[in-house]
Amino acid sequence: MIPKELLKKIRQIEITTSRIVTDVFAGQYHSVFKGQGIEFDEVREYQIGDDIRSIDWNVTARTGKPHVKKFVEERELTVMILVDTSSSCKFGTVNQLKSTIAAEIAAILASAAIKNNDKVGVILFSDKIEKFIPPRKGLKHVLRVIREILYFKPESNGTDLVMALDYLNKVTTRKTVSFLISDFIEEKEGHQIGKLGLKQALAISNKKHDLVAITINDPKETAIPQIGLVSFKDAETGNTIMVDTNSKYFQDMFGKRAAESVSNTKTLLKLTKIDHIHIFTNVSYEDPLIKFFRLRKRRYRNG
Q1: Domain limits for position 114
Q2: CA 303 and chain centroid, separation
Q3: Which one-letter DSSP state was computed for residue 179?
Q4: pLDDT (tens digit, 9 = 90+) per residue, 250-275?
Q5: Predicted pLDDT of residue 194
Q6: What is the CATH number of the domain that holds 254?
Q7: In sequence order, which residues have a C-beta less than 8 Å from that of residue 68 and are 6 or more positions away?
Q8: How far apart are CA 27 and CA 224, in angstroms?
Q9: Are 61 and 150 in a shared domain?
Q10: How much is the pLDDT for 255?
Q11: Same-domain check for residues 85 and 115
């Protein structure tokens, strides 16, 4: 039995996302992602122009006539959605929390996959694997996926992207289309954005899978208003510090560090050749998603 509160939230998400899924993704979803390879279709008699390397010698010997194997591109996809559940994602100063936007985007992607008869799996992570939902098909499954993403309560506060990507590679034996949804804010020593460990993990995962990074940030993470003395608490480490937001030194330092963080993430994703969708909490995520799918479709069509 699905709680009434959950059904209400799911309906709200359906209203928000139905047009995107139906009008945009339904027509472009499969056109921007390749299948897992090729699969056998049939054996037929050899025709002039066929590649002799495709001759099925067993059937040819049995029938006395040359036959060739015919293969088609395998279109069924397995979609994995990795969602950052760390405390830094439970932040938002304008329209919604980053975690809420992450849940809605995950719901869109899961719904699009199910509409195309693909499998969907989910990895919820902080600085540990919080929840793994193996890939499956069907409406009942996607409702479970949405429920878990919306209402799951993580045990840890931190973020470990390297660990999450390593886990993805271990639990998936075949190529997947994987969406990594995170604010890419890490405080764990050795896994700062731009460190070699994360670069390697991204590169390895992108080689094994079709990896797409979706970063979600809030405008106040890059610019803090001048409101005097304020006590700040790091959501992931719990450390607290008192700062004077009116200080020009603080404003300059904060802005510089924030800009460097965003820039480092973009550079890292570019170096590892990972497609990137950047979303802010103060603007609609619809346009960036649609733009990505359209650009990806154009690139795929052009080879």
Answers
A1: 76-301
A2: 23
A3: E
A4: 676 766 777 777 788 889 999 999 99
A5: 47
A6: 3.40.50.410
A7: 43, 44, 45, 46, 47, 50, 51, 54, 55, 56
A8: 41
A9: no
A10: 67
A11: yes
